[in-house]
Amino acid sequence: MNQPDLTDAQLAAQLAEVAGRIALNVRASGLLAGRSLGDAGDATANEFLCSAIRSNRPDDGLLSEEEKDNPARLEKSRVWIVDPVDGTREYAEERSDWAVHVGLAIDGVATTGAVALPDLNGGIVVATDEVKPLPAAASKPRFLVSRTRPAKEAVAVSKAMDGELVGMGSAGAKAMAVLRGEAEIYLHSGGQYEWDSCAPVAVAQAHGLHCSRIDGSPIRYNQADTYLPDLLICRTEYAAEVLALVAGL
Questions:
Q1: What gap in Å lies between CA 84 and CA 64, rounded to an integer?
Q2: Percent of the chain beyond pLDDT 70?
Q3: The pLDDT of residue 1
Q4: Average pLDDT in the 101-109 region?
């Protein structure tokens, strides 16, 4: 795949879509299961993504969950940040709440990207260059949380706002669920890395959602330490209340 004439957003969308199909093909072979399947899907999709990015954007930096970090990226203004299979457990279980993340950070800001949801409705891709209006919000705020480890802040804030907790897998699936009108708030703490949120944040911001750390500070990417433990992605009308409640915990 070598299409240098594509815009960054178009490239991100194509990469995410193809990587998702690759992961689906690995699973469809029926030769692997469980953790072995997750590892194989990650590795195969990662090989494609990294090769395609280096071919199409040779001067840019690259950070992937599935590759050894190259500190040379820190000297780059433009850095692609990818997660080949976000939600490997859900992928291996043939659930729909896993994703492929392809994001581009420019000077530390998530500016462009795409999130593919290969198992949802026959496969969809949400990108920064195809912005659609947000669906109407529910009367009671719905909070997206981990299926197995709901963040204590999300539980507390949901209770204070008379909200509802909705369990879901991948960070990308959660962020896209807010865009799709399946929830209003994604409040996470307890550990993530840059590749977990770069593409989802770029897409969410392009669609007019609030994106920040849970203390309200901006989210910065392409840092020496890639640990990025918390974030808030939500409809703008809820941002101030959620941040105030978190600050009061």
A1: 8
A2: 99
A3: 62
A4: 98
Residue 86 annotated as part of some ligand binding site: yes
> Does the annotation flag 83 for ligand binding?
yes
Is the separation of the CB atoms in 12 and 103 below 8 Å?
Answer: yes
Tokens of 37: 């399947």
210-212 and 185-188: which strand pairing?
A: unpaired
To the question of whether residue 225 is assigned a binding role by annotation, the answer is no
The interaxial angle of helices 236-247 and 152-160, nearest 10 deg, is 110
Reading the block at residue 52, the tokens are 């395609």
* Alpha-carbon span 21 to 106, nearest angstrom: 27
| Residue whose token pair is 């669920």 | 177
Q: What is the CATH number of domain 8-127?
A: 3.30.540.10
Q: Where are the beta strands (DSSP E) in 40-192?
A: 61-64, 78-86, 99-106, 109-117, 124-127, 142-146, 164-168, 185-188
pLDDT digits (tens, 9 = 90+) for 118-167: 999 999 999 999 999 999 999 999 999 998 888 899 999 999 999 999 99
The CATH number of domain 142-247 is 3.40.50.300: no
Specify burial of residue 128 (Cβ count, 10 A radius: 0-12, 13-18, 19+). Answer: buried
User: Residue 172 and residue 94: Cα distance in Å, rounded?
Assistant: 16
* Residue ranges per structural domain of the chain: 8-127, 142-247
Structure tokens at 224: 């020496």
Amino acid identity at 211 = C
